[in-house]
Amino acid sequence: MKVLVDTSVWSLALRKKANRDDAIIKELYELVHEMRVIMIGPIRQEILSGISDIKKYEQLRDRLRSCEDVPLETGHYELASQLFNQCRKQGIQGSRIDFIICAVCMIHNLPVFTLDKDFEKYKKFIEIKLYAARKDIW
């Protein structure tokens, strides 16, 4: 099963002082190694934004290119707006990128691997699957 990995997971793994023994980081490494990571443009942009060292930027950009990309289409944006409206009616606010992630995951039947607790709130009102790190491989 492929997994859409959210920026929050990438950010944890890419920190200078990241704990390489962290289960989340190990899981991301395994997903990349297994070629199961799905990427979308907005997440790619968030990961790469703010890297001022051009050499580090190019290295990370090139590594991220190995991740399968889902091109965003009209249907993704339309569903994202419906999900945004549906959650908003329930008093749940979220970012537009979060709802794009939800739409992509729903359309392509993917779980989202995230540390963002907002997705737990969305899950109460929309049908998204959350991915959890496997405990049996550690």
What key attributes describe this structure?
138 residues; alpha/beta; Rossmann fold; five-stranded parallel β-sheet; globular
Let me know the number of strands.
5
Helix count, DSSP H or I runs of 4 or more residues: 7
Low-confidence stretches: none
Number of domains: 1
Order of helices and strands: EHHEHHEHHEHE
Which strand order spans the largest sheet, edge to edge or round the barrel?
3-2-1-4-5
Write down the CATH class: Alpha Beta
Report the β-strand fraction as a percent range: 5-15%
What order do the helices and strands come in, and which of them pair?
Elements: E1 3-5, H1 7-14, H2 23-33, E2 37-39, H3 41-48, H4 54-64, E3 68-69, H5 74-89, H6 96-107, E4 111-113, H7 118-123, E5 129-130
Parallel strand pairs: 1-2, 1-4, 2-3, 4-5
Helix pairs in contact: 5-6
